[in-house]
C-alpha cells in the first residue's frame, strides 16, 4: 500500500470518527448534525476516489463505486438528497461500525510502502 493510499484510508477513518461524534450531539433531525454528516460522507467518497483500484480490489465486498457515487450526489445534487438515504448510510452504519474501522473493511495489520520511491 502506498503512503497516498494509507493517507486516504486514514481520511476515511477520521471522517467515520467525526460522524460518530456528530451523532452523539443529536439526531439527523437536527439540521446542523445532518449537514455535518453529509459533509463527512462527501469526504469519505472523495477519499475513496483517491485510493488505487488495486487496493480497492482487495476488498470486493465493499461497495466502493456506490460510495463514490454517493459523494457525487451529495456534492452536486444536495438540493434533492433524500434525508432517509443519508440517515441510513450515516446513522445506522456508523453506529454499527467498530471505532476506527470503515464499513466493510476487515481489520488486519497493513504495511505502508511508498511505491513512488
Structure description:
It is built from five helices and no strands. It has helices at 3-24, 31-49, 53-56, 64-76, 83-96. The model is unreliable at 92-117 (pLDDT under 50). 62% of the residues lie in helices and 0% in strands. With 117 residues, it is mainly alpha-helical. The chain is globular and about 40 Å long.
**What is the rounded distance between the termini?**
13 Å
Mean pLDDT: 74
How many individual helices? 5
Q: From the helix content, strand content and strand pairing, which structural class follows? A: mainly alpha
How much is the radius of gyration in Å? 14 Å
Shape: globular
Task: Give the oligomeric state of the chains in this entry, treating copies of one chain as homo and distinct chains as hetero.
Answer: single chain
Largest sheet, if any? Answer: none
Query: From N to C, what is the helix and strand string?
Result: HHHHH
Domain unit count: 1
Number of strands: 0
Strand content: under 5%
Low-pLDDT runs = 92-117
Helix content: 55-70%
Quick recap of the structure?
This protein has 117 residues and is mainly alpha-helical. It is built from 5 helices and no strands. The longest helix is centred in the N-terminal third of the chain and has 22 residues, at 3-24.
Keywords:
117 residues, mainly alpha, disordered C terminus
